[in-house]
Amino acid sequence: MYNMFIANTGTLFNINNNVYFKQGNGSMVGSYNGINYPTFQSWRTANAGIFDSNSVYTDPLFVNQGAFDFTPADGFVNNKGANVLSSVPVDINFQARSTTPDPGILEFTPPTSTDAGIAEVVIPAAPLSPGTIPVNVKVRNAGTTTITSVTINWTINGVTQTPFAWTGSIAGGTQSANVNIGSFTLNALTGYSIAAWTSNPNNGPDARNTNDTAYADNIFAVVPGGSYTINQNAAASATNFVSFTSFSNTISFGGIGGPIVATVVTGSGPYNEQVIFTNVTGTSATNTITINGNN
Asked: pTM of the prediction?
């Protein structure tokens, strides 16, 4: 699943002032010219970084999609649209647009509230070597009250980490710079998922908890060149993958550091899976990926 999919390079693309949000493990923010970009941060590096410099990443939290009320409840998207006043002077309900319109079909005014959340979990871009990886987040103010303090909670693969007490100043509708909340040890051939969320903004309640959390999924170290096995009857290890899915995810999200040969162990099947191998970072005419089926 992609928010944006562009198959080929081009010079006529003008992509900006959008609201992105993805759901589901393995989903991507975008794909450009055969390269997948799993995070909003990485997507904005595509095509020499000309895409979406003024876009935001958040769930707009439509008031009632079932009743076709697509008014955003998240104030972070307020006034983030492009100035198209000359061609789109009103919204779908004939409310006047401005030079800083709201994206989407409706103009709206955020409710007065204290509403903090995590805009994005920021991890260094792949390829990543095994070792210590810093974890940063961007704190978002989706309300109108300036946020001066908030607790940042987080987990790695479901394991609770030490909360981080942040202080500063974030005006309504804006977000902080990167905030370092800690680090973790990235091991080879192991996938990691990070969840981060806010609580206790301004030492009080949050007006809306449904927009507090952001995720970074499918974090893998680069796979060194070498020989590996695929064997569901053996434990996962530094040289064995228990499924084609784990093999595909590890090389697709982590990239490779040399030629890879993966041999399916005779008699270990059947493997009832469907996998997709997209462009893998690090592949070349010499850094190839070979799968020996051993039927």
From this structure: 0.80
